[in-house]
C-alpha cells in the first residue's frame, strides 16, 4: 500500500466481497398463502392419484364440501358462537387478571417475592389435566370452561407482563419522578406503555393456548362448540368433518393472530 | 431561590463517593461541576434534586421558589429521557398534566417553550424522527415548561457531536440572556464549563471533594468560541484536573 515505486497497474483489482445484509426479515406478501395452497394441492393430487389412501387423509375438496354444507345448514354458527363466547370470556378474564398481577409483581417487591414462585409452580401444570377438577369445582356447564381457559391464559400473561415491566427503561421512570409525577401517572403513562410490546407478544402465546384449551374443555360435556364437533367426528372416524373442524380452528388462530398484529400496529406505531 | 449544600458526604456500600461538599448555588447563576468520570458528579446532582438521600449533610433551599414554579428542581438528562411513544407536544404535556394543566392552557405553555427552543414546527414529531440535538432541545423545552427555579443538567450535551454541542451552547446562552435561570450544570467537558459557567467547581477523583472553585465574571453573551481569556481559564482547569483524571482512569482499570 505504501510502496509508491510499484505502479498500481501491476496489482490485480478485486472487488470487495459483499458480506453484509440479512438478519432483517421484511414483509413478503403472499408467500404464506402460497405455502398453504401448495400443500393443499399436493394432498388433493395424492388422494386423487391414490398414493395417499383415503384412511390417511381426506380429499381437501371433500373437506371443503363438508364445510360448505356445515355453513349452509346453519350448524357452523351453532358451533362457532358458543366457542367464540367461551374464548372471549375465558381469555378476557385470564389475560386481564394476568396483566394486573404481572404489573403488581413488576412493581412491588413483596408481591414479587410471594407470587413469582407460585406462578413458576403453576406454569408447567398441563391445564387440561385439571379439567375434571374444574368440573367438580364449577360444575359441568359454562363456568368450568371459562375457568380452564382463564387459568391457561393467566400464567403466560403474568410471566410476559412482569418481564415486560422489568424491561421498562428505568431512566424514564426516574424522569417521571424528577418532574413530580404521581405514582399512578408514572404507572399509567410510563410503565404501561413501556411494557406494552412485551405484554402484546405474551398475549399472542396466551391466545394460542386459549384455543387449545377451548377444544379440550368442549370435549367434556358440551353439546355445541368446535371441540364437541371435532370429538364427535373423531369418534365416528369421519375424517372430512374432523378436518373441517380443524380448519375452523386454524382459521380462528390466524384471525386472532392478525387481530393482535393490528393492535400492535396501532399501539406500537411509535416504534416505526 | 438559592441552593446550599451543607457538608454532604455519600457512600454506596463500601465505596465512598462524595466527601464533605459544601457549596452555594446562587439564584440566576450557572454553576458548573467538573471532575474526572466516576467522581460523583451525577450522584451529587441526584442528591440536590431529591432523587436520593445523602448519608451525611443536608441540601437546603434558601428562600421560597417563585409561586408559579410547578417543579422547582428540574432535571435535564444526558440521555434526554423522552417517552418514545409520545410526540414532542405529548412529552411536554406529560409534565403539565399532573398539575391539572390541559387543553388551551397547556397548549399556550407548550407553544411558548417550543418557540423558545426553536421547535415550533416539530410539535407533532415523534422522538425517533428527531436528531440528538433536537431531542435535547425537546428535553430543555420540557424542563422550561414547568418553570423551574433551578435546572439540574447532567452532561446535557455529552451525547451530541461537537458541532451540535456548539449550537446548543449558543442556544443555552440565548435562553439564559432572555431570562436568567439558576442551574447546576455537570460536565466533563472543560470548554462547556468555561462557556456556560459563572462559577466552576472542580471535583477531585473519587471520593469527590471540592478542589477549587473558579469564578468567571465575563458575561455569557461575550464569551465566544475559542476566546483567549477563556482558554486561559480552561488551561488552568486542565492542570488542576489532569493528574486526578489520570489517577481516576488507572483506578477504573483495577475495579
Ligand atoms: N446507584 C449506585 N449504586 C452503587 N454505586 C453507584 C451508584 N451510582 C453511582 N455509583 C458509583 O459511584 C461513583 C460515582 O458515580 P457517578 O456519580 O455516576 O459519577 P460521575 O457522574 O461523576 O461520572 C461511581 O464509582 C459509580 O460506580
Ligand atoms: Mg455522570
UniProtKB/TrEMBL annotation, chain A:
Per UniProt, subcellular location reads as: Cell membrane
InterPro entries attached to this UniProt entry? MetI-like (IPR000515), MetI-like_sf (IPR035906)
State the SUPFAM superfamilies in the record: MetI-like (SSF161098)
In what residue span(s) does the ABC transmembrane type-1 domain sit?
80-260
**Zinc recorded as keyword:** no
Q: What's a GO biological-process term for it?
A: alkanesulfonate transmembrane transport
Mind telling me what this protein is named?
ABC transporter permease
Instruction: Identify the species of origin.
Output: Pseudosulfitobacter pseudonitzschiae
Automatic annotation (TrEMBL), chain B:
Pfam families assigned: ABC_tran
- What keywords tag this UniProt record? ATP-binding, Nucleotide-binding, Transport
Q: What is this protein called?
A: Nitrate ABC transporter ATP-binding protein
Q: Gene3D superfamilies this protein is in? A: P-loop containing nucleotide triphosphate hydrolases
- Which Gene Ontology molecular-function terms are recorded? ATP binding; ATP hydrolysis activity
Is Transferase given among the entry's keywords?
no
Q: Which family does it belong to?
A: Belongs to the ABC transporter superfamily.
**Span of domain ABC transporter:** 3-230
Cross-referenced CDD domains? ABC_NrtD_SsuB_transporters (cd03293)
